[in-house]
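Consider the record:
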Amino acid sequence: MEAATVNPAPRDRMRPLRYLWRVPLVIAHLVFAIFICAFILSWSNAVMKNGREPFAHRAIRLWSTWLLRIFGFTVYRKGAPLPDAVLFVANHTSWLDIVLLHSQRAACFVAKAEIARWPLVGWMAAKGGTIFHRRGNNHSLASVMAVMVERLQAGRSVAVFPEGGTGHNGVLRVFHARIFQAALDAEVPVQPVALRFASQGRRVIDAGFRERESFVGNIVRLLGGPPLDVEVHFLEPVAVSADGRRRMAETARERIALALDTDTPA
């Protein structure tokens, strides 16, 4: 019996050319980010008042939108985000998820504590209001929850990834229910958000982190990659239940899974 042959993937002849113009743009865009963090976010209280979006929030959205365009992503929003304050819960496959959400609504993210030590990125994340959490540390989680409630009660939206880490190969992992307690304590709504990469309406699962792929490796791969569509689905809010955090988590996950697996027209 003859062994099956596997044809290699066709060579992407445009990749070198994409690097040629995208790399300089990314470097210039990072300089712009330093300016925003140092001068705009430093003096802004960044709270929506009388339904008006603060200038700092608009700057974050603009920067995020331009970065996605540099990488060749076209963003489509489906549904509408609730007004501040709200707890956004989303699926997580890549560092791009933060940029995608920021392109639609500036929010405080909960992220792993290791990011705070990354050169430049950690400083930018802190300036943007990121709440850092040491995974597996119950004391850290309690502190994070307290800060989340404080931000929500002050009128800021908070965004979390309830899977507790990035998923691979299109798999949506179980949502941790405890994080939903912050919405209950702050008395704010919970809105699921599905982040979906697509090409001609069909989901693409390779844009996120591959298994054992590094942060820098993912950036380099995507920077030379072909254009893709990205859909940000703001879904129906989850009913708040004081005695049903687990049910809230399961409902949010079910709605995100449905949005991810439903093909959209090209």
